[in-house]
UniProtKB/TrEMBL annotation:
Pfam name, any one: DNA_binding_1
Organism from which the protein derives: Tractidigestivibacter scatoligenes (Olsenella scatoligenes)
PANTHER family reported for this sequence: 6-O-METHYLGUANINE DNA METHYLTRANSFERASE, ALKYLTRANSFERASE-LIKE PROTEIN 1
Highest taxon above the source species: Bacteria
SUPFAM superfamilies in UniProt: Methylated DNA-protein cysteine methyltransferase, C-terminal domain (SSF46767)
Presence of keyword DNA damage: yes
Alphabetically ordered keywords of this record: DNA damage, DNA repair, Methyltransferase, Transferase
Name of the protein in question: Cysteine methyltransferase
Catalytic activity: a 6-O-methyl-2'-deoxyguanosine in DNA + L-cysteinyl-[protein] = S-methyl-L-cysteinyl-[protein] + a 2'-deoxyguanosine in DNA; a 4-O-methyl-thymidine in DNA + L-cysteinyl-[protein] = a thymidine in DNA + S-methyl-L-cysteinyl-[protein]
Domain Methylated-DNA-[protein]-cysteine S-methyltransferase DNA binding: 5-88
GO molecular function, one term: methylated-DNA-[protein]-cysteine S-methyltransferase activity
Stored CDD domains: ATase (cd06445)
UniProt-listed GO biological process terms: DNA repair; methylation
Length: 105
């Protein structure tokens, strides 16, 4: 399997995350049958074509609901802005409220 194959598989799952919901890097990895490759899913999201390519990578967050500090399209502030625009709520500590907004595939 090449990096491109892995990345495309990750993108295909991330494309399924509905507006107003988030998934975690580990969740995407588990759905791919690669439960130990959450970090690699992060590499895929960082390299993604973003919304222009139909990959809503801004909907992928860490397991504790925190945002990626190096979000590829403008930093964590931009990721939060994009999620809030879709109706995703945040806790006072700045993390996504996963109890309410985690996607359950």
């Amino acid at each position: 399997m090449t990096d491109g194959d892995f990345f495309q598989r990750a993108y295909n799952i991330v494309r399924q995350v509905p507006k107003g919901r988030v998934a975690t890097y580990g969740q995407v990895a588990r759905m791919m049958g690669e439960p130990r490759k959450a970090r690699y899913v992060g590499f895929a999201m960082h390299s993604s074509p973003g919304m222009k390519g139909g990959v809503p990578c801004h909907r992928i967050v860490f397991a504790d609901g925190s945002l990626a500090p190096g979000f590829a399209f403008g930093g964590a502030d931009e990721q939060q802005r994009m999620l809030e625009a879709e109706g995703v709520g945040f806790l006072p500590n700045g993390k996504v409220d996963l109890r309410q907004y985690l996607w359950e595939a």
